[in-house]
Amino acid sequence: MGVLDSKIPQGPLADKWVKHKNDINLVNPANKRNIDVIVVGTGLAGGSAAATLAELGYNVKTFCYQDSPRRAHSIAAQGGINAAKNYQGDGDSDYRLFYDTVKGGDYRAREANVYRLAQVSGNIIDQCVAQGVPFAREYGGLLDNRSFGGVLVSRTFYAKGQTGQQLLLGCYSAMNRQINRGKIKSYTRHEMLDLVLVGGKARGIIARNLVTGEIERHSAHAVVIASGGYGNVFFLSTNAMGSNVTASWKIHKKGAFFANPCFTQIHPTCIPVSGEHQSKLTLMSESLRNDGRIWVPKKLEDAEKIRKGELKPTDLAEEDRDYYLERRYPAFGNLVPRDVASRAAKERCDAGYGVNKTGEAVYLDFSAAFMRYGREAVATQHITNATEEQIRDLGVKVVEAKYGNLFQMYEKIVDEDPYKTPMKIYPAVHYTMGGIWVDYNLETTIPGCFAAGEANFSDHGANRLGASALMQGLADGYFVLPYTMGDYLSKDISTGSIPTDTKEFDEAEQKVRQQLESFINTKGTKTVDHFHKRLGKIMWNKVGMSRNAPNLREAIQEIKALREEFYRDVKVPGTADGMNTELEKAGRVADFLELGELFAKDALHREESCGGHFREEYQTEEGEALRDDENFMYVAAWEYTGEPGNAILHKENLEYENIEVKTRSYK
């Protein structure tokens, strides 16, 4: 077991990043023209990194499996992006953003990285405004803010319910400028299938052209992995169906340690599962919890009547509703962090109070917000003798202006009007806090291989606060990697171009071809989706929202057996020489089947509850997470040894010099 060096700079916390930037090596503009960088993934982290590195003068190649960089899954983010600008004058600061993030992650994040994130957060907003991102504004012209879970201030900047889309369009425009200049070569519909090491350093990738089936070699002086998270190991998640772990897993198998895989976020406000036919779930933005109140019936008999269709939620009087988050967590109410809200919803549904046919749903109700905003409108418009109906209609218009596209989306999917009846929501797999281990420079344990955004583990600990994903992705891409990569690349100014006609590229390409051909030649009887769904059920039932040792041990054995069956009986039609979406999925599911075992192994080893990792054996009398700081205050980074079950644990001990570590309380 090794102890990892995170390369955190010395000195006071607030000075570490400034001092580090002053101390690291630089590459002069003339030399940047001779250095190549590969970026895998073109979401907010990869796209911003590619655009900035190209703007600095590096030659960049970008790879994405989508048909355009603007279709990266970052586009699906709805609610907003955090930054400590204190526009609301409610007491926000860099330190408070830092503190909320570390506390929200249940004291399992690296202090120095999180403080840096808070420091650069304001710059992100300025950058995006300059790009033309249409953030919402309040009456005085300043950018507007709203609240998200786990905080007591309003620091979330937003563009209605499509913040990710607008940020990605800004990032994409910056990329397009560099593509037009010839500084970025964009490879769309390409999937990275292996990392090439030369002399122990990352020097390129093997990619498959998903349109022609051609296997391609691409070299560079450094490689950035920004390919997102691995939530689709559960099959059903809020991720795009194509989202996968393949790029991260390939570098893991080449020597990059995988950190905290069991730290996965369950989002509390998703549209509930409706049946076996579903292939993905839809997220309803956490921003809705600003104005929506979450409840279930107080009486079991009322819940049962609602499930049978004998009673409507609007029939229940106020005194017959249990606003359980407001009852249990009065200080934060409906804006508790995601892990807390998710477990509370599960507890109520497990107790029999669920409100849809499956019994796995709670209500998100805006009726109080309609009346509150309506009364404000009546007052500001000086309307006299307004009826209750008029007040409500005015309030509906305010809510529609804030969240209209989210309400439209809900109605299209569920076929119920959320203005007339409360939304139904239930927790679902959303974001992965675990990922590739990186040091302070965002470099993995492979020299020259970096990881950014959701693909790395670095900033969120055991639970991510809402609206922090976009913040981390853009911080990594715009303001961290362009500095820290320069320090590494300064040693490559005399290296020259990296050739691809070497034995290292030969061996990597041959390995990729062999795996693809083996999938085609298996000639089994079951589809790739058949195995993916079975893996997802194992993961959700035994490694999901709550975990225990017996279930985790069973999951490890079941996943091993499923993986063996997959390689023995998977059916992949077609050939490897052209477009073949089933072949693409086969490679991704093969990686999920290995990741799933490591995921369960990590959850079994961590004998505590923290954030999104809830072990049933370790909880307080009130059912809250019970950490073990004495034995588990570290990052668990796993080294691949040939089999996921035989991975070696390395620890990065976490030290908190600027925050008092204590039991989280949102009451």
UniProtKB/TrEMBL annotation:
The keyword Membrane applies. GO terms for molecular function: electron transfer activity; flavin adenine dinucleotide binding; succinate dehydrogenase (quinone) activity. It catalyses: a quinone + succinate = fumarate + a quinol. Residues 532-666 form the Fumarate reductase/succinate dehydrogenase flavoprotein-like C-terminal domain. Its EC number is 1.3.5.1. The active site is at 338 (proton acceptor). This is succinate dehydrogenase. It comes from Salinimicrobium marinum.
